[in-house]
Amino acid sequence: MKVTYMYIHQSPSWPNFTWDEKSLSNILGNVRYKQGKLLGLMESVGFDLREATTLENLTEDVLKSSEIEGEILDHDQVRSSIARKLGLEISGLVASDRHVDGVVEMMLNATQDYTKPLSSERLFGWHASLFPTGRSGGFKIEVGNWRKNAKDDPMQVISGAMGREKVHFQAPDSELLDHEMSQFIKWFNNFKDLDPILKAGIAHLWFVTIHPFDDGNGRIARAIADMQLARADETSQRFYSMSSQIRAERTNYYNILEKTQKGNLDITEWLEWFLLCYDSALINTDGILNTIRNKERFWREFSPININERQKLMLNKLLDGFNGKLNSSKWAKIAKCSQDTAGRDINDLIERGILIKEAAGGRSTSYNLASL
Hints:
mainly alpha
């Protein structure tokens, strides 16, 4: 008699995933080649460039993983929090709030301590870091423990207005979570005969399918994948951002997750999507590397010049790719100084040939770097 089920975790064979190794072999070989090439390149550059690249990619990972869930964090707070926790000396540090620090702590614990085993206690710590107040969206949640929803109130991923809701996915009952998570953690720590990049994709899917927490499952699933990718790279330094690429492909990401969870245990299509997403993340690291190299060249050229901290802060923002036009009002607001002080800072840099005034004048006057 054929057994029917709605979600893969209800299959009698769960969690014995299968996939077509032959159809994935070309993609896997390609990403392995690009991964090796990137790691080799980073080994050949200076320590400062590797540190700067790690800082930018970790910042992007934290920002974009939260953004996938609709939460916008402050870029400067995230970057400053990471720099402080890694002991990096950078200019323009700002104070970061408790929530930002918590998200950063989770990501750093996953990627910097990637050799340490995963455990339920470690996952509970990540969850508590994500929700330091024990609340999510104004609602009290079970923090630092598996969810405890009643059988008649299942954990579901739903969209749509009241009365027209669509159930995208329903997770295993909470009474099964101790067994489900024990099985997952044992596999994650002990399963050796598997390509580590494939393992990152499987771990991501497996964890998000169990959905063991009241909230934060997507972010923790991506942190687990990043932890496994750090194992694949054999370094805590991060030279690409998987979450940035997932954010760019967010619609496809949710679609393939839903399709896979409503399919059978053959996850070839999910793994193909994950590998192609990883491939794009490796390719797109070129942009970050170019930005960092430009900054290095810029500061080598102008290092002998006496530049104050406000000027250094604003020049770094321009080097990072300032969003919009930089005028004296924005300078004053970001650098936390008066309009007169901003004007003096700007004029000083114009006289030195570091800044130029854009063609439009009057109220529209804006400034940019003279050259890179």
